[in-house]
Description:
This protein has four helices and no strands.
Amino acid sequence: MRSAAKRLSTRISSYREETDMSVIDTTTPRSHGFGFAFAPRLTRAIATLTAQVAEARERRATRQTLEKLTDRELDDIGLTRGDIHRRF
Length: 88
């Protein structure tokens, strides 16, 4: 009776070892090709491009506002007409 229980225990142990080895880890991102790591890089690229476009629009709006000021108003804030295009 004990030998049958021992054989059963051995079979269960070996079965567990076999099934443990066949598990595939799907939580680790792959960095080759268009794997799981592609999406975050694409997201960062889009975010960077969006930020650059927003900054360019803000600089253009600032430049247009400063160009509407008179030379006296520009002098009051410490700028000249040439500074507008060099800084903005």
